[in-house]
Amino acid sequence: MSIRTSIATVSLSGSLETKMTAIAEAGFDGFEVFEPDLVSSPQRPKEIAARAADLGLTIDLYQPFRDVDSTNPDTFARNLIRADRKFDVMEELGCDLLLVCSSPLPTAVRDDGQLAEQLHTVAERAQERGIRLAYEALAWGAHINTYRHAWQIVADVDHPALGTCLDSFHILSRGDDPSGIRDIDGDKIFFLQLADAPHLVMDVLQWSRHHRCFPGQGNFDLGAFGAHVVASGYDGPWSLEIFNDVFRHSATGRTAADAHRSLLYLQEQVGRYPHATDQLFDPPPPGPIENIVSVRLASGPVRAPEVAWTLGHLGFEMTAAHSTHGLQLFSHGPLAVAVDTTVDTLWTAPGVPAHLPAVAQIGVRSGDPGEWLTRAHALGVPAQAVGMPGTDTDLAEVVRMSVTDATSLDLRSRSSVQSWLEAFDLVPRASAPPSSPFLTDVDHIALAVPADSWDGIMLLLRSVLGMTPHEGQDVVDAVGLVRSQALTLTTATGVIRLSLNMVPGRVSDTDPLPAARRGGVSHVAFGTHDAIAAAESMVARGFLPLQISPNYYDDLAARFDVPGDVLATLQRLGILYDANGSGGEFFHFFTPTVGDDLFFEVVQRVGDYAGYGETNSAVRLAAQLR
Amino acid sequence: MSIRTSIATVSLSGSLETKMTAIAEAGFDGFEVFEPDLVSSPQRPKEIAARAADLGLTIDLYQPFRDVDSTNPDTFARNLIRADRKFDVMEELGCDLLLVCSSPLPTAVRDDGQLAEQLHTVAERAQERGIRLAYEALAWGAHINTYRHAWQIVADVDHPALGTCLDSFHILSRGDDPSGIRDIDGDKIFFLQLADAPHLVMDVLQWSRHHRCFPGQGNFDLGAFGAHVVASGYDGPWSLEIFNDVFRHSATGRTAADAHRSLLYLQEQVGRYPHATDQLFDPPPPGPIENIVSVRLASGPVRAPEVAWTLGHLGFEMTAAHSTHGLQLFSHGPLAVAVDTTVDTLWTAPGVPAHLPAVAQIGVRSGDPGEWLTRAHALGVPAQAVGMPGTDTDLAEVVRMSVTDATSLDLRSRSSVQSWLEAFDLVPRASAPPSSPFLTDVDHIALAVPADSWDGIMLLLRSVLGMTPHEGQDVVDAVGLVRSQALTLTTATGVIRLSLNMVPGRVSDTDPLPAARRGGVSHVAFGTHDAIAAAESMVARGFLPLQISPNYYDDLAARFDVPGDVLATLQRLGILYDANGSGGEFFHFFTPTVGDDLFFEVVQRVGDYAGYGETNSAVRLAAQLR
C-alpha cells in the first residue's frame, strides 16, 4: 500500500476537463475541485463525477468554503443556507469532504466558544448530508491563523463530521513550528495540502496567492513537515494546492507531471526521517557520479567557423571529426568539446526555435549510468539509454535526460567516453601542437531557461540528481534584470555547478530587448589555475580581450586593495575581479558572444570563493554589447 | 525662472550615452550619474562631462556612496580612501555633489555623536576638494532610517559641505508624515529625489528596488509632499530616481519623455497648494468635456462582416457609408459606431502588428477641443488637430491624442460630430427601421495594453485628462492572470470610464497562451436600463447568448438572494450578476469574441454599483473560449 496522491485543480491551467485529464495522465489518485473551476465548467457536477470515475480519479475535496462564522446572526444564518447549496453540489459530485477556511473578515467570530458553537451547527447539518468538514487556519485569518488554534477548536467541538486540514504553506510561511502536528490525533486530520514556496519577504496573502510552488521547487523544509504528519498517524491523501502565476498559463500536462514528481520526491525526503512509514515511495538511490567530461555544442553550419575560431582562442584544437555526423571534436588537455555543425534533431523540441549556438549536451562521467536510468524512471523522468550515433556503445552505458528544451545531460560510463572518442576520425593537425594546457576543467555551465520551464528544471535537478540550490539572485544590468540560480553537486571528483538564467519574457511586441538577450544567453566557464597566464596564452593565439571600461578598474581600486600593477594587467587583459571578504578571490574573463546566444568564460577561484562574480554582470554585458 | 528638472540615469534603460541623449531630448536640465552606469561606460569621466555639456545638461549628483560610517575603525579608514577615489572621479566629471546613504549594515554606527563625528570627518575632506555631501536616510537604514533623524544629524554636524537629501520613496513608503520637511532649513536640503509607487504590501527594499514609478503613476500623494518641499525654501533640482523592472528594458526615449511629463504634472499638483512658488510649471487647465459620442473600430476587410453581424445583434444598423474611405457607420439611438473596413494607417504605430478588430478611436465631445490641444502640448503630449478625411472640418475642432499604440482619443466639438456624420453617404435601409433603442450610452471601454506601455498610459490619462485611477485588480481566470485598472472622469454629462487590461507577456516561445489572449482583448460596453429586455431584443435579432455554465447560477443562488425565476431568466439569456452589499447591483452579458481581440458587453447598473463585475471574468472567458 502506498500513499494516495492528490492535487487541487487550481494548481493547473486550462478548463476543468483539461485539468482532470492531465491529472489522471500524470498518475495522481485523485483531486480537489476548486470551486471557480466548477463554476466555469460546462459540465454539471454529475458529469464531472462520471468523468472522474472514467479516469480512475477520486474527488477528494471540494474547496474552499469561506467565512462560515460571523458575529452577525443574520449573516451566519445566510451562510448556513449557502452551505446547504454547496452540500447539494457535493452530493452530485460524490464528494464528501468540504474545506472550510478560517475567516479573515472583520466580522469573524473572535470568541472560541462561540466559534465552536457555530462550527458545531454546520457540522450537524453536514453530517445529516453525509458530509465531513476539514477546518483550516488561513495564515491571514482574523482570529484563527495557526494550525494549533484550528486544531484546538476542532477538538473542542468534538464532532465526527468536523476535522482539521493542514496546509504546509499556511504553517511554514508564518515560521510556525510544525512539530506540534505530531500531537494531533491523525484520525482528526481530514486532509493534507502541500505547497512549497521560495523565500520572499512580502505580504503573506500575496505570497500565497502568486508564488507557491511544488515541493522541491522552493525553500520550505517539507521533508521534516511530512515526517511530522506521518507521526500523527494521518493516512489520507497527500494533496498539492499551488497558486502560481506562471503555472496558471503553462502547459497543463507538463505542470501535472512535475506536480506528481514533486510528491514522489517529497516522500523520498520524508523517508529519511526516523519512523517513516513503509507506505512512502522509496525510489532507487542516486548512482555514482564524477565530473563534467564533455560538452557538445550545437553550432549549425553558419556559426561553426565562429565557434571553432573562439575555441581556438581558448587553446582548443580540432583533433578529430566524425565521419558521418558533422561532429567536430576539439580538445584541450583533459577537456573535450564536440561541435555539431548540423542542426541535430536529438536536442530541439518540436516547435522550439533553435537559438544557435547552444549547449546541446553536458556529458558527466558515472560509474554506472544504468542506476541513474532506474532512478529517473522511478521519478517519472523520461530518461533514455542511448547509443552514440555510429558507435557500438552498449545502450546501458549512456543515459540521457533533457534538462531544458535545448540541453540534455548525458551520464556516461568511462568506456562509453572512450568509445565515443574513438568513433571520431583523427584529422591531421592544422597547426603546431598546442602548448601546455591552461584550462583544467569545466567550472560551471550556465543555461538560459524560459520562465515556464524554470520550476520544472529546478525540480528535475534536485529530485533526480540531488543537486543543491543556492540563494537565487536578481542580476541587474543596463538592459534589464535576469533571475539567476546556481545549483551544485559535490561528487567524488569535485563539484558540478550549473547556473540557470531566466530568459526575460517579452513584455510587448515592441519590447526592445537586445539580440544578446532574446533567446537567453548560455555560457560555458572553464577553470584555470592562473587567469592572467590563461589570458596571456589566449592573446598569443589571437584573442582580443573584451574592452572593459577603465572606469571599472578605478572602481576596483576604490573598493579593494589590489596593487596598481595587478590592476593594470587585469585591465589590459579584460579580467574582472571579485573578493568575498574572507580571503577568497575570483578572477574571470569572457569571450564576446558567439552568435547571440553563447559565450565562454575562464575563471580562477582562490581560497573559499564560491560565487560566480555576479556583481560584474553589468560590466560584462556592456562590454559584450559594444 | 522655473524649477530645474533632473533624473537619475538608473531610471532609464541602455548605455550611459543612450540615456544622456534621451534625457536631453526629453527636456531635462540635468541628471544624476548612477555609479554602475559610469563603471560600465567606455567613456571616461571627462568625456562624459564634455558630452553632457554638449547636450546642455548639468551633472547634478553622483550616486550612491554607501556605508560610509562604521563601528570598525579600520573599515572607516578604508572608507575614507574609497571616498577620496570617488572625489577624483567627481572632479573629472565636474560634479560637486555626492549622495551619501545611511548604512543598513550591522556595522553601522548607532551612536548619534559618533556618527556626527565620522560624517564631519568626511565633510572636511570633501570640502578640501570643493565637494558637498547630501546625506539621505534609507528606509531600511540600520540606525538612520527617517528624514527627521538624518536632518538632525546633519544639523548636529553643522558643516557647510554636509546637507541632507530628501527622497519621497524613503519617506512615504514608511508612512512617515512629510510635513516636518517644512521645518528643515531649505539651504541645507542639498538634493531632492522623487519617486511614486503603487500601494504594495511587501518588503520595503524589494518594493523600492523593483516597483518605483514616476509621479502620477503610483499611489503616493506627491502633490502634498512637493508643497512641503516648496515651503522649506529648497531651490535645487527636482530629480527622479526610479528603480523599475519594466523601465529597465523599455524604450529609453519614451520612458524619458514620460519622466519629464511626470515632473510637469507633479508641479501642477503642487501648485494647487497654498503658498506654492511661482517657479512651478502651470499648464493651461483641462478644457470642457462631455461624454463618449462615437467609437471607431478597425475591422479590416476580413473581419468586417463579423463585426457588422455582431453590431446587428446589438441593435445597430448600418445607416451610412463613407464614399471614399471604406468607413461604415452603424447607429443605435444616440450611439454611433464607425467601422474601418480597411487597415487605417492613422492608428497603427510602425512595427506594431494590428490585432484586428480593435478599438481605433474613442470620440468624446468637448465644448472646446482647442483648449485640450494647448494643454496637451504644454504637457509634452504630441496631440494633433486633425480634420476628418474627406470633410471640411475646421482643424481646431478635432483634437487627437494616442492612448495606446492602437487607440486614439478624439476630442470633438459638437459641430465636428455633425459634419463627421454628414460626410457619410446614407445607404438604403437594409431592413425595417429598428425598434426603439435599448442601449443608452457607452458605459466603459476596456483597452488591452502591453506591460511596457502601461505606466505611460496611466500618466497620460491622469495628467492631460485628469482621470482618477481606482484600486487595481489582478483578475484570475482559467488561463492566467490579468492586471486590470479602471480610470474614471466625471464630466458635466456623466462618467467616462476606461479600463486598462495588461496584455500578459509571453514567458517563453512555447507559452500556450490561447488566441483570445495573444494580443490582449479589448471590449466596448454599452449601457442599458434593462439588461434582460436588452438581451431579449438581441435574441429577437438572432443573437445567441453565451453558454454560461449552469453551475454558475447554482453558485449565484448560494451567494445571493436572487429569486429562482429571475435566475432562470438570467441563465437563459447568459446574463451575469454581481452586487455590492449596499443595494447596488450589476447585470451584464457579453458577445462572443469577434476575431480574437474584441468583444462587446451590455451592462445595467443599479444603485451605487461602481465596479465592472470583475468577479465574473473567469466565467465569461471560459464561455468565450468554448
TrEMBL record, chains A, B:
Secretion signal, residue range per the UniProt entry: none
One Pfam family of this chain: AP_endonuc_2
Required cofactor(s): a divalent metal cation
Transmembrane segments: none
Record keywords: Dioxygenase, Lyase, Metal-binding, Oxidoreductase
Domain (Xylose isomerase-like TIM barrel) ranges: 22-251
Catalysed reaction equations from the record: 3-dehydroshikimate = 3,4-dihydroxybenzoate + H2O
Annotated residues for binding of Mg(2+): H444, H523, E601
This enzyme's EC code(s): 4.2.1.118
Superkingdom of source: Bacteria
Any single GO BP term: 3,4-dihydroxybenzoate biosynthetic process
KW Lyase (keyword) present: yes
InterPro entries documented for this protein: DSD, Glyas_Bleomycin-R_OHBP_Dase, IolE/XylAMocC-like, Xyl_isomerase-like_sf, Xyl_isomerase-like_TIM-brl
Sites where the protein binds a divalent metal cation: E136, D167, Q193, E241
One example GO MF annotation: metal ion binding
Enzyme class: lyase
Family, similarity comment: Belongs to the bacterial two-domain DSD family.
Protein name per Swiss-Prot or TrEMBL: 3-dehydroshikimate dehydratase
Native source species: Rhodococcoides trifolii
